[in-house]
Amino acid sequence: MNNTKNVKLLYCILGSFMLTLLQSPYFFSATYTMFGGASGANAFTHMIYRLFGVISFGGVILVIIFSCILIISNINLRNK
Description:
Order of helices and strands: HHH
Number of strands: 0
Strand content: under 5%
Shape: rod-shaped
Structural class: mainly alpha
């Protein structure tokens, strides 16, 4: 039973890590090209960049939280 909990936490960590990749240079470059972030960048483009920044920050926080939960749940306080 504890094994499935660990797997679920690992999936949560993986999903949160994927959210942090929104601020990677490759994704930023693709978004820059897709939404016309050239010299005449509009307000929509800046709003998209801000939204990606907030989501990425949330992903970092979730990675930290889920990692701490996984570590705490696997600490064996009783010596067998």
